[in-house]
Amino acid sequence: PRQLVTGPVATMDWPALRAAVAACTACSLCESRTQTVFGVGHQRAHWMIVGEAPGEQEDLRGEPFVGKAGQLLDNMLAAIGVSRQAAEGDDPARRVYIANVLKCRPPANRNPQPEEVARCAPFLQRQIELVQPRIILAMGRFAVESLLHTSDAIGKLRGRVHRVAGVPTIVSYHPAYLLRSPLEKARAWDDLCLALQTLG
Ligand code: URA
């Protein structure tokens, strides 16, 4: 991908980036978190999923999408043969890297605030540069705002291919929203199919 990050984060490798996130005190979320939630999956994957922020389970376990929304996400990915457990020997098209816009849980799972998103953005941008995914799935409003810099509704943005630093990016609903609005799962499935088709 084209370069996304500027500033000190721009030259960090994986260990340096992980350490910088773990030590981050750039916003007040550092005061309420149990731990930071960096990302999970393969560091060289064709798929990259971007969610919103850690919830209660993620904050406790230090891994993204391990609660109910995460189970749904894992099931959706399994349906297209993609797994966060896919390893080195596996086809890179089955590998995924999963990260959030925010690396710290907002208190009581409130929405991320613009300042928090802005402070945390270089970490996600550097993760994208290091993974070099072939497709990004932006799930939910905050992933879309952070990556595509628009506050247009998901319903308006989905169904076509966007670009983030040159990487094809598909917009879809957040899995937690799908749990509340199961009828939208059909649309989310269409979005996954568009992503598969774009990956070729
Ligand atoms: N929702 C998210 O957006 N990310 C997580 O890691 C868990 C729930």
Automatic annotation (TrEMBL):
TM ranges: none
Domain Uracil-DNA glycosylase-like: 38-193
UniProt-listed GO biological process terms: DNA repair
EC number(s) on file: 3.2.2.27
GO molecular function: 4 iron, 4 sulfur cluster binding; metal ion binding; uracil DNA N-glycosylase activity
EC class name: hydrolase
UniProtKB keywords: 4Fe-4S, DNA damage, DNA repair, Hydrolase, Iron, Iron-sulfur, Metal-binding
Reaction(s) the record says it catalyses: Hydrolyzes single-stranded DNA or mismatched double-stranded DNA and polynucleotides, releasing free uracil
Family as reported in the entry's similarity comment: Belongs to the uracil-DNA glycosylase (UDG) superfamily. Type 4 (UDGa) family.
Protein name per the record: Type-4 uracil-DNA glycosylase
Organism encoding this protein: Rivibacter subsaxonicus
Residues of the full protein shown: 55 to 254 of 257
